Amino acid sequence: MRRVTVFTLGGTISARGGDQARMSGAEVLAELGVAPAGVDVSLTDFRRVPSSSLGFEDLTALADEVGKAVAAGSGVVVVQGTDTLEETAFLLDLLCTTEEPVVVTGAMRRPDLPGADGPANLAAALAVAADPGCRELGVLVVLADEIHAARFAHKAHTTSVATFRSAGAGPLGAVVEGEPRIWLRPAVPSRICPLRIDPDIRIALLTLSLGDRGELLEAVADRFDGLVVAAFGAGHVPAWLVEPLAELTTRMPVVLASRTGTGATLSHTYRSPGSEYDLLHRGLIPAGPLAPAKARLLLHALLSSGAKGPAGYDRPRITAAFAHLDGAGLA
Ligand code: ASP
Question: What is the mean pLDDT of residues 55-72?
Answer without folding.
Answer: 98
